[in-house]
Amino acid sequence: MKLREFAAPDFDLAMTLDSGQVFHWEKLGRGFVGAIDETAVYISKWQTLNFSGAPAQAIVAYFGLDHPLDEICATFPSDATMKFGPRICQGLRIIRQSKWGMPGDFYLLLDETGGAYPADLGSSSPSIRNAKQIRDREIFTFPTPKRLARTSQRELRACALGYRAAIY
Fold this sequence. Notes:
It is a single chain. This protein is an alpha+beta fold and 168 residues long. It folds into 2 domains: 97 residues, 2-Layer Sandwich (TATA-Binding Protein), CATH 3.30.310; 71 residues, no CATH class. The chain is built from 8 helices and 7 strands. It has a 5-stranded antiparallel sheet. The protein starts with a strand and ends in a 10-residue tail after the last helix. About 16% of the residues have low confidence.
């Protein structure tokens, strides 16, 4: 796998991926494997950001690397709490998931057959730990709206969607 690279100062990849924003990224060697929309991606950060599977502009957009952090932080109120926040969260970025991928990542995690599990075994508020424990190690993207529209209620129930499978 040939990796491309670019500088990404003030970016902590592990902190960002482990912050609870997304659940489908898996630690692999010195980096992470996951998906950006429908594209499988490997990404690592040492002195530079190294990646494969997606164009650089997709990586920049997904991880918010184009956000002007210094300008944003300069707008924060000058109280002690707001001055402390950027120091303890240094390198954390807000991930830009697609509007369709976000609920898929949060509520449904796909198994090796492409079926889906409820993120917290039926809970409407999955915890990060539970979501990471039940997701599979293979990379799957969330089904498109068209694909889900073609899925029967029987197929949804076979994915253990529980109450989420009911059609009203």
